[in-house]
Design brief:
72 residues, rod-shaped
Length: 72
């Protein structure tokens, strides 16, 4: 499909409103997901640092052989 002008492209054969609203809403959802993940990650690291400062968690890493919980 070719368009003769920019106005024709934006109108998308009289379906432009639907097309551009669809693209816009998809972009908003993707941006909301990215922001949510980034803020959750920052919150996790902030809480982990605060717990480490208070001494509530040790400096061991997962898989180091220290398992304090019972197996499932």
């Amino acid at each position: 499909m070719s368009f003769d002008s920019l106005a024709d492209f934006l109108a998308m054969g009289r379906h432009g409103l639907y097309v551009w609203l669809s693209y816009g809403s998809a972009l908003i959802v993707v941006l909301a997901n990215v922001i949510s993940v980034r803020s959750g990650r920052q919150r996790f690291f902030r809480q982990t640092r605060a717990l480490a400062r208070r001494g509530e968690i040790s400096g061991t890493t997962a898989g180091s052989g220290d398992q304090t919980s019972e197996p499932i």
